[in-house]
Amino acid sequence: MKSAVTHEQELEASRVALTGTAFERAKIAARALVALLRNPDDTRQVFLLGTATGRRALPQLLTRIVLSDEGGRMIREQPTIDSKHVDYEALRKLPDGTLGREYVRFLDVNDLDPDLFHAPPGLPQVPAYVAQRMRQTHDLWHVLTGYMPDVPGEVALQAFSYAQTGTPLSWLIAFFGSIRNSVKHPGIIGKSIDGYRRGKRAAFLPSVWLEEMWALPLEEARKRLSIEAVN
Prior knowledge:
Order of helices and strands: HHHHHHHHHHHHH
Number of strands: 0
Radius of gyration: 17 Å
Structural class: mainly alpha
């Protein structure tokens, strides 16, 4: 199903996030959340929801990133994970079991487009980059955590992400996604709680330059980042 979100709506969400009232932000967020619950594949609703709810969380996330040496370097150099900056054919030639090979396999098997994720329009440069970085590393977090791109896996990953970033977006998706799907997917609430606990125990991923770990065995990358894979 094609997303109903337009570029103008994304610009409006950015304007409201920067200068709007709490009521305006809540209205945009509520509409996006309802649309997302109706159609979980509508990823642009996720972007809209994140922009509308992230006014306080994004600066806090940015501060935590720049306080680390690696995160500060990332903000200065602003690496991008897309087909213009990553050699995906080279990743396909890496040995099986490496982070890079398993990442591109994840994209191929699930027919995912790495060029889908752009910075929200209308935000200042650095916050826009951080938002884009979080979007572009989402599938890498799937690979590192072992969560599948299905409803239980996405909900659990959002709980993991909330533990990492404290963003309202992740909490909203994890909470309402767990409640709404608890009958169809028994155990999803427990999986979400476990995802939060695992996110708390893991290294702070938003400040990690994951591209420098392409050639590492996936298990070694998980060990370095204190990530427990899903059984």
